[in-house]
Amino acid sequence: MTEHQEKASILVVEDEIVVSMLIADILSDSGLNVAGPFRSNRDSLDFLTYERPDAAVLDFNIADGDSGPVAQRLRELGIPFIVASAFPKEIATGPAAKALRWITKPFSETDLTEGVCACLFSTQLKT
Q: Which of 10, 65, 69, 78 has the highest CB neighbour count under 10 A?
């Protein structure tokens, strides 16, 4: 990335503080801007009212239920997302189940960065 390019912004929705800090650190170390982390649908949806991240990382179960409302809003806005969760993908339903990728906790740094890169690449293909 050259100094003239803007860093991509990644929305992080994760209610466990230690995990959200880990995700934020990995993304920041990869040269990305982190939006959040947010712990709930409410806070995430408030953010999305005014901001448009380039991609998102969602936990399936968050402070106020599952992340379906955020996933639905991201889909409406055309923002790709991945899910990083201990919740089994096989039984997940709703908008979050339609994530570009689903990575299982505990995940590796490589799994996370590859998932986010896939989101960013899919966005570039659309433009």
A: 10
Contact 108, 84 (CB under 8 A): no
Q: What angle do CA 29, 74, 107 make, to 5 degrees?
A: 40
CATH code, domain carrying 62: 3.40.50.2300
pLDDT of residue 34: 97
- Strands (DSSP E) found in the chain: 9-13, 33-38, 55-58, 61-62, 65-66, 81-85, 101-104
CA–CA dist 33, 53 (Å, integer): 9
H or E stretch including 47?
Answer: helix 41-50
Cis peptide before 88 (omega within 30 of 0): no
Q: What is the pLDDT of residues 66-84, one digit of tens each?
A: 999 999 999 999 999 999 9
Task: Tell which residue, 55, 48, 64, has the closest CA to residue 15.
Answer: 64
CA distances (Å), 69 to each of 22, 55, 59, 89, in order?
24, 16, 12, 17
Side-chain half-sphere of 68: how many Cα atoms within 13 Å? 7
